[in-house]
Structure formats: structure tokens, C-alpha cells
């Protein structure tokens, strides 16, 4: 039992380039941006993130999703795979344009830096909001 999806989901796979030797293969597999062939027991989480983001994009609404858990369980890899698939859909004109801003709590030394990071990535939108609402 889960939430009914508004949209169908593409297959989750992003191929990695072929390694030239064992050391390169290890380096590619251990890289933070590497997506393994499967994330065991993460299909429900993928579905939740995908449907949340796509629903909000297509309906023109905002939203916030908090993702937490034990390190190394596939949270970042799952989100990155969702966003790669949504970027493809955006590039194909299937969904509205968007800018993905990743805020990972492990990167932030204080909460203020979160806002600075978002502003730097999308400063024109931030400027519009400041002018319009202030």
C-alpha cells in the first residue's frame, strides 16, 4: 500500500563509464556520485521522492521534504537518481523547467549557510522575491 502516483516513473539506471583497470573500477564505485546498479530496499523511497518532486513541479506548488537516516544507506544516491531522471524529463519538455538546489545537512557548519547556498545558486529568483515581497 502506497500513495498512488500521478505519473509513471522511468527505470532507475545511470550507466557509469567503463573502468580501464581494477583501481579505476574501485574508485568509480566508491565515488559519492556513483549510482550502484541497485539500491536494495530503496524502491519505496525512490517512489516517494520522485512523486513528491514531480507532483510539485507539475502542479506549480512548493514543498519541502526532509530525508534523514543512518549514513551510507542510499539517501543521497536515491535523490541524485531521482533528479537525474527528472532532468532528462525536463530536457525532453515533459515537465516544467526547474533548478535543482541540493542542501545536504552534512555540508553545513551553520544554518545561515543553507540560505547563502540557495541564494548563490538561484540569485535572480531570490532577487525577484526580495523586490516583490519586501
From TrEMBL:
Domain of life, source organism: Eukaryota
InterPro entries with a match to the protein in the record: AAA_16 (IPR041664), ORC1/CDC6 (IPR050311), P-loop_NTPase (IPR027417)
Q: How does it assemble?
A: ORC is composed of six subunits.
Q: Which UniProt keywords apply?
A: ATP-binding, DNA replication, DNA-binding, Nucleotide-binding, Nucleus
Q: Where in the cell is it found?
A: Nucleus
Kindly name one Pfam family recorded for this protein: AAA_16
State what this protein does: Component of the origin recognition complex (ORC) that binds origins of replication. DNA-binding is ATP-dependent, however specific DNA sequences that define origins of replication have not been identified so far. ORC is required to assemble the pre-replication complex necessary to initiate DNA replication.
Q: GO CC terms on record? A: nuclear origin of replication recognition complex
One molecular function GO term is:
ATP binding
Name recorded for this polypeptide: Origin recognition complex subunit 1
A GO BP term here is:
mitotic DNA replication checkpoint signaling
What family does the database annotate? Belongs to the ORC1 family.
Orc1-like AAA ATPase domain: residues covered: 39-89
